[in-house]
From TrEMBL, chain A:
NCBIfam families: caa3_sub_IV. InterPro entries: Caa3_sub_IV, Cyt_c_oxidase_su4_prok. Keywords: Cell membrane, Membrane, Transmembrane, Transmembrane helix. This is Cytochrome c oxidase subunit 4. It is found in: Cell membrane. The lineage of its organism: unclassified sequences, metagenomes, ecological metagenomes. GO terms for cellular component: plasma membrane. It is a multi-pass membrane protein.
Automatic annotation (TrEMBL), chain B:
One of its GO terms (cellular component) is membrane. Pfam families: COX3. One of its GO terms (biological process) is aerobic electron transport chain. Keywords: Membrane, Oxidoreductase, Transmembrane, Transmembrane helix. Residues 1-207 form the Heme-copper oxidase subunit III family profile domain. InterPro entries: Cyt_c/ubiquinol_Oxase_su3, Cyt_c_oxidase-like_su3, Cyt_c_oxidase_su3-like_sf, Cyt_c_oxidase_su3_a-hlx. It comes from bioreactor metagenome. It is found in: Membrane. This is Quinol oxidase subunit 3. It is an enzyme of class 1 (oxidoreductase). It is a multi-pass membrane protein.
Length: 94, 207
């Protein structure tokens, strides 16, 4: 566990991650300006989730830190996803 | 976990891993707070699709896009500041934190003009105009003001945290051997960015 403190992420990685995030943002704006019907929402949410995952893994160091943080975050996301599913089952089939 | 503290020769009670886990636990409560609001938004949008579609056109995509880029860049500068302090480059750390604070301020100024434009047209929570809107429109704008407002409060809290950290880097209280405060304030700032990543498409883009 001692090693987790000493992983230094190179500056270049941060810059590349930032560029990736900006490109994805531009893609979302372009994709939602085209009329895709219901796929608009899907496309925007998939890209947002992708951006969120990149922020969590690189900027928030989940990729480099001890696994325990990754496990905890995954659990919280799983709980949140379960609440969404249950809520929509309720609203769609009541 | 005890192995971590002795190698830094700091005070015996320091446990950076515990501090970081504590910060993450706090972040989880924030994720669930905003997550709950996102679910409220989704359900009301599902029930009022037409009103939400028309109401979203009142928001400026350009403004939202600029603020998204500002937050993404500010997240990168915080991440760079951590790498810089680990390399014992205090000057770069302080420069990056300073840039982050400036970007955060710019975000708030943009938000001020965005909200100000709405207020000028009589659109603010509790206004006559808002009371006379249809159910769907009212829900959209109430959620817009509440969620971006709550996010704005988080920006201010993040600025205070990063400001304190910047001061402590300057005095040397936060340094290359002891930077848990910088890491944890950084985590908070990335959370603020993370929330905006979802707010932007939901309010400004989706139709």
């Amino acid at each position: 566990m001692e090693n987790e403190k000493h992983h230094i992420v190179p500056y270049a990685t941060h810059i590349m991650v930032l560029l990736g995030l900006i490109v994805l943002t531009v893609i979302t704006v372009l994709i939602t300006s085209v009329e895709l019907g219901a796929y608009n929402t899907t496309a925007a949410l998939i890209i947002a989730s992708l951006k969120g995952a990149i922020v969590l893994l690189y900027f928030m160091h989940l990729k480099f830190d001890h696994k325990i943080y990754w496990i905890m975050v995954s659990l919280v996301i799983a709980i949140f996803a379960a609440v969404i599913v249950v809520t929509f089952f309720d609203y769609l089939y009541r | 976990m005890e192995t971590i503290t002795h190698q830094h020769h700091a005070d015996a009670h320091r446990d950076d891993t515990a501090a970081k886990i504590g910060m993450w636990l706090f972040i989880f409560t924030e994720i669930l707070l905003f997550g709950g609001l996102f679910i409220v938004y989704s359900v009301y949008r599902h029930m009022n699709p037409v009103a939400f579609h028309l109401a979203h056109e009142e928001l400026s995509i350009t403004m939202g896009f600029i603020n998204t880029i500002i937050l993404l860049v500010s997240s990168a500068t915080v991440a760079i500041s951590i790498s810089a302090l680990q390399k014992n480059d205090r000057k770069l750390t302080m420069l990056m934190l300073g840039i982050t604070l400036l970007l955060a301020l710019t975000f708030l100024v943009n938000k001020y003009f965005e909200w100000g434009g709405k207020f000028e047209h009589g659109m603010y929570p509790g206004s006559e105009l808002m009371k006379n809107l249809s159910n769907g429109d009212m829900l959209f704008f109430s959620l817009y003001f509440f969620m971006t407002g709550l996010h704005g409060v988080h920006i201010i809290v993040g600025m205070v945290l990063l400001g304190i950290t910047l001061y402590k880097v300057k005095t040397g209280a936060v340094n290359s051997g002891k930077y848990a405060l910088l890491e944890n304030s950084g985590l908070y700032w990335h959370l603020v960015d993370l929330i905006w990543i979802f707010l932007f498409p939901l309010f400004y883009l989706i139709h």
